[in-house]
Amino acid sequence: MRVSSVARKTTETDISVTLNLDGSGSYKISTGIGFFDHMLEQFARHGDFDIVLKCDGDLNVDGHHTVEDCGIALGMAFCEALGDKRGIMRYGWTALPMDEALILCAADISGRAYLNFDVAFPDEYKIGDMDAELFNEFFLAFVRACPMSLHFKKLCGVNNHHVAEGVFKAFAKAMKAAVSVDKERADKLPTTKGSL
């Protein structure tokens, strides 16, 4: 079983995460930011990841620390669950439609942290109770904690909710493919370098 459990506590946030990469898409998410919970629930369901995540953050300041630190903790959980990455497909990509929005996402679990978040929101304001600018911060924190190359591109979309949801669903599909096990090469690393 590729499972992990992470606890991370700072003066700004107190987070616990349990993750099963080979789950059924069950989730229990509580961050105190309703729209962020909704996005993480989409990620779990559409990636078939079982995720339990609880965050108590300093929302009296704003949502930044909560969103960024959840990215760190969830990235740590993925990194731990992947172990030495032996047998994984390594690459995953998708083009995901969400009504009028169309989002591309491509992931390479390479061991090198890089994010290209080419997703402009029609209006830079809150979506529900979440600042739109925090999506970039979440994914940047994730790739730093689980070193990988992660690319997003919005091809079209005018509704902020649809664009954001398309991003998280596309991320789910790309990650599901990237972490899946190549049964023909289950004992091999997907690299010529000897490690990822």
Q: Mean pLDDT score, rounded?
A: 95
Helix and strand pattern = EEEHEHEEEEEHEH
Report the radius of gyration as a whole number of Å: 16 Å
Would you report the number of β strands?
10
User: Total number of helical segments?
Assistant: 4
Low-confidence stretches: none
Describe the main β-sheet briefly: 4 strands, mixed
- Percent range of helical residues: 25-40%
Strand order of the largest sheet: 1-2-4-3
Structural class: alpha+beta
Estimate what percentage of residues fall within beta strands: 25-35%
What is the 3D shape? globular
Q: What's the structural blueprint in terms of helices and strands?
A:
Layout: E1 3-9, E2 13-20, E3 27-30, H1 34-47, E4 50-57, H2 64-82, E5 91-98, E6 101-108, E7 114-118, E8 126-127, E9 130-131, H3 134-145, E10 149-156, H4 160-179
Parallel strand pairs: 3-4, 7-10
Antiparallel strand pairs: 1-2, 2-4, 5-6, 6-10, 8-9
Helix pairs in contact: 1-4, 2-3
List the main descriptive attributes of the protein structure presented here.
33% helix, single chain, globular, alpha+beta, four-stranded mixed beta sheet, 196 residues
Written overview of the protein:
It is globular, with a radius of gyration of 16 Å. The chain has 196 residues and is of the alpha+beta class. Strand 5 (91-98) and strand 6 (101-108) form a beta hairpin. Helix 2 (64-82) runs parallel beside helix 3. The strands form 3 sheets. It has a 4-stranded mixed sheet, with helices on one face. A 4-stranded mixed sheet has the order 5-6-10-7. A two-stranded antiparallel ribbon has the order 8-9. It is built from 4 helices and 10 strands, in the order E-E-E-H-E-H-E-E-E-E-E-H-E-H. The longest helix is centred in the last third of the chain and has 20 residues, at 160-179.
